[in-house]
Predict the structure of Nickel import system ATP-binding protein NikD.
Amino acid sequence: MSGIFLSLRQLSVTYGRGSSGAAALDDIDLDIVAGEMLAIIGESGSGKSTLARALTGLLPEGATVRGEILWPGLGHPPRAGRDFGFVFQDPGSSLNPVLTIGEQIAEGARRHLGLSWKQAYVRAEELLERVRIPQPDKAMRAFPHQLSGGQRQRVAIAAAIAARPALLIADEATSALDVVVQAEIVRLLDGLVREDGMTLLFITHDIALASGFVDRIAVFRNARLVEAGPVRSVLSAPRSDYTAALIASHRDLATPPLIVEVRS
Ligand SMILES: Nc1ncnc2c1ncn2[C@@H]1O[C@H](COP(=O)(O)OP(=O)(O)OP(=O)(O)O)[C@@H](O)[C@H]1O
């Protein structure tokens, strides 16, 4: 890990014009280190997706943004598809139902890496192998509906990293999957991010899941950043009552054996 990749300075976002409406993000100061895995934790409505949209220029028209989003790690504002990849909760929303798996992964590599279609197809098949889709050569010709939910999410991850982005944003990317598949996808993300030296923003309501693999946690509540820190320090000594309650609500995190392990 080295250097600041991304800095948020007094970032506030309000939906709707003028000063009407409550802030969806309120005065957020946060530095994200290059190459780190940071979990953005919070319950529904806390502002997690607003943060992801603000970073990637995907806020709806009429949203008001105040403060600064700085990208020292890139040196320029991020270009969609090139500098960041996005994985959503529902892979259906990022995969095109009428394109083959091969076509949609190859497209990002072709467009952003300047590859020919032939080279892009080679890269797409390699990526399917990396995300551990069985029989990648056959899967290249399949359509999204022919795959399981977990496999579709693997394909969505492959498409998101096809252009070798510096930043990967996973927004509730495992929430629709059963726990076994969730664990597999988390392991996959962990491996890919380390191998490629990407920075990961793992957005989730599940502090237990995130704590198993990320470096740091940022806890959001009601549009505010409640606290941020390394997983071990947040779990063993949360600074806010809210985080403490969140930890206590997860038996796996609150039971003595894990606390002992966390402190070791
Ligand atoms: N397009 C929009 N227009 C108006 N208000 C919105 C819009 N999108 C989100 N909000 C509001 O902004 C606040 C934060 O929402 P956001 O989606 O960022 O939260 P979240 O933590 O990602 O929740 P979830 O996990 O349910 O997606 C909520 O009060 C929500 O109702």
